[in-house]
Design goal:
This protein has about 70 residues and is an alpha+beta fold. It is built from 1 helix and 4 strands, in the order E-E-E-E-H. The strands form 2 sheets. The chain has a two-stranded antiparallel sheet with strand order 1-2. The protein has a two-stranded antiparallel ribbon with strand order 3-4.
Length: about 70
């Protein structure tokens, strides 16, 4: 499976590294993907998902505010 967040769709980005002499070489920016066990309140079960760290922070915020219940 690709390195991609199943909720936000974040995936590897591509671009160039520019040195001081303005040489450029290809490089990648990889998302911070974590394999986490997330509780699904609708079914009352846990699911293992590959999600980005940014989504985990958003999920924690929504759970604190009671929006996911």
């Amino acid at each position: 499976m690709a390195r991609m967040c199943v909720k936000t769709g974040r995936k590897t980005s591509f671009g160039n590294t520019r040195s001081h002499s303005l040489r450029h070489t290809r490089r990648t920016w990889r998302p911070n993907i974590q394999r986490k066990r997330v509780f699904d309140p609708r079914t009352g079960t846990y699911r293992v998902m590959k999600v980005s760290a940014a989504y985990l922070r958003t999920l924690a915020k929504h759970l604190r505010e009671g929006k996911m219940a």
